[in-house]
Amino acid sequence: MGDLDPDAKSDPLFSFNPSGRVIYIKSFSKIFLPGLRIAAVVLPSLMNSNFLRYKFSSDFNSSALSQGALEIYLKSGMFTSHLKKIKEVYHTKMQTLVEACDSLLPAHTHFSKPTSGFYLSISLPEHVTAKQIVHMLNEQHIYVDDASRFFLPEYKRDTLLRLSISQVNTNTIKRGIEQLAQCITLIDDRKNHPIPNNLFLL
Questions:
Q1: Strand partners, 122
Q2: Residues 161-181 pLDDT 10s
Q3: Which InterPro entries does the entry link to (predicted)?
Q4: Greater model confidence, 88 or 156
């Protein structure tokens, strides 16, 4: 998702005179159309013939219509215009999310501060699990991801949440973080101030 990076100096490794040692691969699904399963690749010339042979044998059903439509879209300049627009949209969304986390999340909660892209990660207090938060928020129709599936079993983290802004309206981000903060505080308070065994609530 480097196309969404607001820092124009963040060029791919391929731009630094790779001398035939770097392959540049670019996808269009995240920044243009999820259903468009087409990527572009720039290869060292030495690899071209082998790559084309293996690509043809493993994937000879690539849609010519989709490829042709994408080529027209790129050459017309519409892709450049689209990219500029979504870069601004996602930069604004991410700024809103980072500011909401900074001002609303309780102490002992840490989070990444990306300047672009779709995702932000939140590290919960050690005795608050991601599964607890996911369950509580799902009941309120707020959906976050338990990020444990992104780790190998031996490196699994039970206190990590992953938020995505790709399908969220900017004006709902703060409200969502407010609800998340309330859930963290509620679970945190229960852990730190458990109800005594001899106390009965009527």
A1: 111, 161
A2: 999 998 889 999 999 999 999
A3: Aminotransferase_I/II_large, Class-I_PLP-dep_aminotransf, PyrdxlP-dep_Trfase, PyrdxlP-dep_Trfase_major, PyrdxlP-dep_Trfase_small
A4: 88
**Which positions ≥6 away from 62 have C-beta within 8 Å?**
38
Q: Can you give the residue range of the structural domain that contains 117?
A: 87-192
Token pair, residue 132, equals 């607890």
- Give the global pTM: 0.77
The CATH number of the domain holding residue 133 is 3.90.1150.10
Do residues 188 and 127 lie in contact, with contact meaning Cβ atoms separated by under 8 Å? yes
| CA atoms within 13 A of residue 100's CA, in its CB half-sphere | 22
Last residue of a domain, one of 33, 52, 76: 76
Task: Tally the residues of the chain.
Answer: 202
Same domain, 65 and 134: no
Cβ neighbours of 121 (radius 10 Å): 16
